[in-house]
Amino acid sequence: MRYFLDTEYNGFGGALMSLALVAEHGDEELYFVLPPPEEYHPWVERHVLPYMNHVPPAHQGPPLDRASAAHALATFLANDREIEILADWPEDISHICMLLLTGPGEIVRTPPLRFRFVALPGFSTAGASTVPHNALHDARALRDHVLSIEDH
Asked: What is the pTM for the complete model shown?
């Protein structure tokens, strides 16, 4: 199955703050928030932080530490054998890959994963999202956009 990825992070090269994967079909979604950094980048504080918890109740919960988030990701993907994760921003792929690492020489066990970066000139997940700069809503917007252009 294909999954659409979006992340929010604390400025360019900053720490991962939230991650969402949305399945191509059906209602399978993963969304979690990580503990807040000591300081937020000013842009993130204005444009991301106010929307972090604008998600349905099923996706709300306390922040997950990195190890718990990695295991939640592995559990979410565990029953799928043909996984392709699409993102429209390279740093999203970087963050999900780094999350798989749980320590020196240690990773969570997942099925084989394929990643695809899809350049979408003129498209903005935040601009198309119902809640801009929220990883879950932005991942849904990415999915909807990619599926709409594939249908044409």
From this structure: 0.94
